[in-house]
Input
Amino acid sequence: MFSVVLATHNEAANLAKCLDAIKDLADEIIIADGESTDDTVKIALHYGAKIINTTNKANFHINKQLAMDAAQGDLILQLDADEVVDEELHQFIKNLHEQIRQKNTTDLPAAWWLKRKNWFMGKFLRKGGQYPDPVIRLYQRGKAKLPQKDVHEQMAVEGKVGWAGGHLLHYSNPTFADYLRKFNTYTNFKAAQLYEQKIPISVLNSANYFFFKPLATFFSLYLRHRGYVDGVPGFTFALFSGLHHVFAYLKLWEIYEKHRLRSVK
Output
C-alpha cells in the first residue's frame, strides 16, 4: 500500500496540480487541514482524500506529522501542496512500490532523498544553494519522523537514506508577492524562536543581525553558491535571504516592546 500525505492551509490554487501528478499511484491520500477557508477541503475530497481537521499552526510540521501518523501504507510520500512529482520520480516510486509489494525489501533504504527544483521569479533556480535542495520525503512506514521544532527541518530516519530518481517541482513562489507573504510568515516564526531563546536586544546582536548575518548569507548564496548564474532572480533570492535576519530581529524587538508596554500598564 502506498500513502500520500500532506498538511494544508488555503491551498486551493495548488492542490489539484499536486494530486493530479500522483493520484494514479496513491492507495490513500491523507490531508491534515489547518482551518482552510477556501476550497482546499472540497478539492481534497474530490480526489478521495481522508481529511484530518485541525488548527493552523505556525510550525506546520506538526500538522504534517499528524498526517504521517495516520498513514497505513508500507511506503509513504509526504508532499507540500505546492510540489509536483515529475515523470521520472513518478516512475521511481511506481517501481519501488512494486518491489515493496513483492516483499523484496532486504537491501532497501529506510528513506530516500528527493531532489527539488525551486521556482522563483519565473524560472527554476539552478544555483544559490537552491539546487538540488534535497529533502527526505519518501520513506518506509515507521522509519521516519519529523522533529517538529522548525519549519525547515529534515526528517529523522531510523536506518540508511538513499537517493530517489527524478525531482519534486516546487512552485512555492509563483509570484514575488507570494514570496513576500511567506517571507513575512517565516520571519514571524523566526522572531518567536529568538524570543523563546531569550536572545536580547543589544549592540552586539544588532550588529550581528543587521550587518554580519545578512552579508554572510548574501555573499554565501550569491558568490560561493554562484547565485549570480540565475541573473536577477538569483540576486533577489540571495538579497532577501540575507534580509531574513534583519526582519526577524526587528520583529523580535517589537515583541519585547509589546511585553514592556504591557508590564508598565
